[in-house]
Amino acid sequence: MALLQVEHVQKIYQPKGGAVHKALDGVSFEVEEGSFVAIMGPSGSGKTTLLNLIAGLDRPTGGSVVIGRQRIEGLDEDVLADFRRKAIGFVFQDFNLLDPLTVEENVILPLTLEKKVGRDALNRVHDVLKRLGLYDKRHRFPYELSGGEKQRVAIARAIVHRPLLILADEPTGNLDSAMSRVILETFGELNRTMNITVLMVTHDPFAASYAERVLLLKDGRLYAELVRGDGRTGLYQKIIDALSSLEGTVASR
Amino acid sequence: MTWQALWRRMMLRNLKMYVGYLLTAAFAVMMFYLFQSLGMSLSGEFLTYRRGNFLLGVLYVTQGVIYVFAVFFVFYFHRLLIQAESQALGLLATFGMARSARRRLVMLESGFLGALALFFGLLAGIVFEPLFMLASSVLLRLPERVPYAFHLAALLRTLVFFIALFAVEGWMAARWATRRWPKQLFAAGHAVETVRRPSWGKGLLGFGLLGAAYGLAAVVHPELFRRADAAGMMTFGSPTFLLWFGLMGVMLVLAMAGSFFVLAEGLRLWVRRRRSGRGMGAATLLTRARLSAALRSHAGSGTAIATLLAVVLAATGMLASIQMMMLLTTVYESPIVVQMAAEEGDEAAHGALDRVETRFREALEAAGYDLRPTVPLRLLTGTVPLDGWTTADEMDRVAGRFIYGIDVIGRSDYEALTSAIEQTVPLLNGKYPKVPALGPGEAFAVRTFTDPKGFENLPQTAWPKQTGEYTVRWIQAQDVIDREMGGDKAFDLESVPSMKVRLIGAAPTPARLMNLSRFWIPSATVFVVSDETFEAMAAQADRPGVRFEGRALFYPRWQGSHPLINRLVAEVDPPGGSVRAGEIDVTTLPDGYAERYRYAGSILFAMALVSLLFALASGATIYFKVRERARSDARQISTLRRLGANRGTVFRAMRREMAVYLFAPLALALLHAGFALTDWRALLILTGLDQYREAGPIVWKAYAAVAAVMLFLYACFGWAVSAGYARSLWRKGWERS
User: Fold this and answer.
1) φ and ψ at residue B146, rounded to 5 degrees
2) Cβ B587 vs Cβ B569: under 8 Å
């Protein structure tokens, strides 16, 4: 069953007195529940714009986005906020942890917004922190953590309220390769063990190879769709090939 | 745990970010309360002494300035604070916090911070109030200490004003936070400047706009006034007046727009040009790179600060010049250090005059003052009709414009008096005209309190100007009362004794000849006659209320004698401030001078306090503005450390950068205020207010004093803040490294 349906989504920017810029031009795809999908593309291809539209952080110029059974474009901002609170978890490239709050407090934040404030909430936070190996560091502040640990806190914060969908925007963009591997394995494990649906934007073929399916964007359009067949290495090779073809197209233009 | 509790924790752990806002707001509350309280303490029984209303006026103006500053800074600061929090707000919005909850959050935070500022501000106000009253008494040189009293009304006014202010400001901040999409909030939280090439066109436009504003202020505006005034077109509400007035708005707009472009583009152009030089140190390179990226975002706040600072400086200069003119006026109005006078022919008064003179001389000499010989005075008061009107005309206009009050004085008295004045009051040296030789029945008119330029323009209807024969009538005050008010007996002009004199010439003096006193018709003209003519006139003017005798006392260093003078006047005066002692008038220069001097001090005192408030708030504004970039700055420092930048380089760069942010608006403000005062100075001269042309130096002195205070405060503030900021960046850079 499709958890996410994106149909003919368009996003057009026109600054005052400036030229029209189509960030997204009729993008359509579906994401099945419990899948791990990566969106790739060169800079300026519209990856982050697409993620923002799916999350309801921005409004599309045309087309529709359906998550679960909820069509989100045109929703009132408060209803949209309510929907995001329940259905979506976010992981950002630069972590976006609140520096004055401890690890535990950062993770419990989405639950407090749902008014889940009792012992159960704290237990759930502790469970998530244990699963991600951060329980012992729950009283530390973000500045006392490494980059990988910060991103794992951000992941814990994204899953603690059990969302339908996790949206990750370049989650390994600020990390070295060892830390990136840990984070991507964490996503994979969460996807497998908790059946969490993950939609990840990345420009890194290695990161994308952790997904089951890779959507390649170019100039605001869906350029190719790659599916993992026989393991991660195969998908990685397909991505490299597709990227070469994409770069060739770009170069020949 | 609730999100409200989390937010509270976040605020408590992030106090540094709030300290600037809290300090400024609490300081504004404290100043507001103290000035309200001081105004109330002074407006009661305490200010019954003369000219107390002026001091209250100054206080009200100061309160007005504090109102304006409080509104500006509370609004501006909270906006910056909210921007600094926008990352957190964006995160909350992303995680699904409803707009209503965000609105509540921001309102609650505003309310909480406002309540803290109110509490600490009022607490500080109440704690420091006795000290403030004592300081005010000393600095304003009040005759006694301002009594400390708790004024509930001051407390309530402060509460009402600031609760309303914090509520409006909270509502506006909440509106800002709820009208934005999460993406926009994130963007606001990561203020990263897009470095654009500075525009030569805009930079030059900035200098051009400033040049236009300054040209208008220095040349066009005063010249328009001069020409319109000469053509008689400068009447209130006339098109020319409106044009002249409207030009002030144009100058303000030009100066603000010019400041913005100069700060945003002109300064960046200069910085970029300097960057291309070879052999530049790392700190210089870093400073200039950072400035060329960030100056544009500082241009808005810099312009606002430059404008407000210019207002403070210009207002200080203007108020100081008014005070200086009043101080000069006091000297010109009362040129005799101590003058005592009584009606001639009253034996009792004559005896009293001797006793009072002796008492003053003894007391002053005992106090170490070197008294010069007493100058005796004899004076007749009369009127002359102008333009040769008949008696019937005079009767119709007896108290109107066409019959003119004069004082008559003998030549030897005039010379003795002017010589003593010129020796004792150096300001008046050379200010009195020399009287030519006078024959019997001849007079020379000395027009007092008039500058030479004004003298030429005076119409005949305003004073006896034409040489020729005049009829001097010895009209008494009672005659006018009878005529105008229907007194006891009918006024018969024919029965008033008169004498013909021939006016042989006239000249002005900017001062008076005698202290402004109680004579019944405002008179600005003294007829100097030969001693023989004076005796003949005095014999004829044998009516009550016409002949006066007096004594004039002179001594150097008279400025410091006012406490003693006040005591001596109090001995011969009944309490309550009247200067009449039975039949004796006592008027003194030191008393009026000291009083006026005190007010001039009060202006500077008030402006210095306002400047302090302003310096603190504007400095904190700039600091907040700098902190907006803390995240990207930390990243930059991290990179620099990897490249091998050392602590000294980073600290030097930060200090220089902060100096530019602080002093560039200050430099512009000094220029703005300088030209505003040039315009003001020209206006004073053109309107004849600064007829002695001596107000200028004090204007510039006041301007320089406040500017120096500002520079000092800014330097201290800049040093402390840049060091603190650089330290924090260095630490963060290390963590990132």
Assistant:
1) -65, 125
2) no
Q: What is the count of residue pairs from A and B with beta carbons less than 8 Å apart?
A: 77
Task: Determine which of A30-44, B49-63, B307-321, B695-709 has the lowest per-residue pLDDT on average.
Answer: B49-63
Residue B119 scores a pLDDT above 90? yes
Q: Which two tokens stand for residue B499?
A: 């004498």
Rounded CA-CA distance B46/B37 in Å is: 13
| Contact with chain B for residue A93, Cβ under 8 A | no
C-beta separation of B464 from B386 below 8 A? yes
Which residue in A has a C-alpha nearest to residue B7's C-alpha? A101
Strands A221-227 and A213-218, by their bridges, are antiparallel
Name, of B20-29, B64-73, B364-373, the range with top average pLDDT: B364-373
Q: Residue B1 and residue A84: Cβ atoms within 8 Å?
A: no
Instruction: List the domains of chain A with CATH numbers.
Output: 2-252 (3.40.50.300)
Residues of A in contact with B13 (CB under 8 A): 100-101
Q: Predicted confidence band at B280 (pLDDT cuts at 50, 70, 90)? A: low
What is this model's ipTM?
Answer: 0.77
Note whether B335 and B515 are within 8 A (CB).
yes
Computed over every residue of chain B, the mean pLDDT equals: 79
Residue indicated by tokens 């952790």 = A210
A143 to chain B: which residues are within 8 Å by CB?
Answer: 735
Cβ–Cβ below 8 Å for B14 and A57: no
Task: Write the DSSP assignment of A17-45 as a string of letters.
Answer: TS--EEEEEEEEEEEETT-EEEEE-STTS
Is the confidence at residue B165, as pLDDT, over 60? yes
Beta strands A2-13 and A21-32: pairing type?
A: antiparallel
Smallest CA-to-CA distance from A223 within A249, A252, A197 is with: A249
B727 is written with which tokens? Answer: 């330290």
Q: Six-digit token pair at B490? A: 């009918």
CA distances from A195 to A32, A189, A199, B626 (A): 11, 9, 13, 46
Nearest-angstrom CA–CA distance, A55 and A49: 10
**A139 Cα to chain B: minimum distance (Å):** 14
A21-25, A227-231, B188-192 — which one is most confidently predicted on average? A21-25
CA-CA distance, A132 to A91, in Å (whole number)? 14
Asked whether B499 and B406 are in contact (CB, 8 A), the reply is no
The tokens describing B378, both together, are: 């004899």
Identify whether the C-beta of residue B433 lies closer than 8 Å to the C-beta of residue B507: yes
What does the pLDDT look like over A28-42, one tens digit per residue?
Answer: 999 998 899 999 988
Coil, strand or helix: which one is B588? strand
Residues comprising chain A, all counted: 253
Burial of residue A31 (CB within 10 Å: 0-12, 13-18, 19+) is buried
pLDDT higher than threshold 50 for residue B577: no
Q: Using alpha carbons only, give the angle B7, B9, B14 rounded to the nearest 5 degrees.
A: 95
Report pLDDT digits (tens) over B369-389: 999 999 998 989 888 876 555
- How far, in Å, are B253, B296, B313, B666, B716 from residue B303 at the CA level? 11, 11, 15, 10, 22
User: What distance in Å separates the CA atoms of residue A168 and residue B280, rounded to the nearest whole number?
Assistant: 44
d(CA B203, CA B257): 11
User: What confidence category does residue B732 fall into, taking pLDDT thresholds of 50, 70 and 90?
Assistant: low
State the Cα–Cα distance between residues B522 and A168, nearest whole angstrom: 89
- Encoding tokens for residue B655? 């200090």
**CA-to-CA distance for A44 and B13, rounded, in angstroms?**
38
Q: Are A54 and B93 in contact (CB under 8 A)?
A: no
Q: How far apart are CA B331 and CA B512, in angstroms?
A: 9
Under 8 Å between Cβ of B645 and B100: no
pLDDT class of A252 with cuts at 50, 70, 90: very low
Distance CA A10, CA A31 (A): 18
Classified as helix, coil or strand, B514 is coil
